[in-house]
Amino acid sequence: xxxxxxxxxxxxxxDISMAQNLATTxxxxxxxxxxxxxxxxPFTAIQTVAAAIGDSGISLGGQxxxxxxxxxxxxxxxxxxxxNLGCEYVIVGHSERRSNHGESNADVKAKxxxxxEGGLTAIVCVGESEAERESGDALAxxxxxxxxxxxxxxxxxxxxxxxxPVWAIGTGKVxxxxxxxxxxxxxxxxxxQELGNDSAKTFRILYGGSVNAENADEILRTDGVxxxxxxxxxxxxxxxxxxxxxxx
Length: 248
Ligand code: 13P
What we know:
11 helices; 15% strand
């Protein structure tokens, strides 16, 4: 069985000494036989984290990338720049990128294509807003995000999906296990339509949104959940490692 993926999205937090300390502790205490741990620090801390994790088996990723290989894109980071620093993963289409930077499904698709062609595993984020959940549109919204955010080249070996309901991010609100299972199974069926059954069956689908040391056990045992994308609780080694230890 594939190990679960427990990914820490540090977002825009910390400084170099915090990154160094957090990554060192996770590398020292994280048992890679429980799960695959992945750290996604801010771009400015990637090299520090790479040095701190060394060959511990902890994976490294970026929080975003540009779709182009190089060029006049002030402030952006290319896939090649990430692989050059030892990254194996990149998060694309996080709801904070979609809302703060106006990223569309087409943008996410272009970034995912660049990531997989450049040798990274893309973690493609999807999720409905609170209004969409309340109006009964969650399955339709997320289904259409999945269908329009994935390039033809996406497969279970180069892409991971992350279901992050926008209303659960940083709020302490978590969907019920029934809602999580329903959505993960729905995502899998959309993947099967888009990419074919064989690829869909083995896709890792992470859950993200207020995952912590207390609720991880229940969430990670939910049908269709292949790991977690963790924000706030990934900024403390203790809670991040506890989430990893909760993997069934
Ligand atoms: P929180 O775990 O802080 O809710 O953030 C989730 C998230 O957005 C991870 O990408």
